[in-house]
Amino acid sequence: MIVGRTAMTINKDRDELYRFWRDLENLPRFMNQIESVHRSGERESHWVARGPAGVRLEWDAETVDDRPGERISWRSLPGSRVESRGT
User: Fold this and answer.
1) pTM for this structure?
2) Distance of alpha carbon 44 from alpha carbon 54, whole angstroms
């Protein structure tokens, strides 16, 4: 199930945007449902979000593709309570 998909144009240099996205702890600044993201390893992170009816959800994810200046992709780890991925 796809919960949400959004596209937007941001008038910034691609390297600046890459650096911002690469620091996953910035994601709660514009993803309203995400409370926090903390790095827990080289490619791993721990996510906390608020779901329907204010239910707190937590899961671990991994970076699966990292191309500096181009794109970053992540997905929740197998066995996580939440299935999540993004690019």
Assistant:
1) 0.81
2) 25
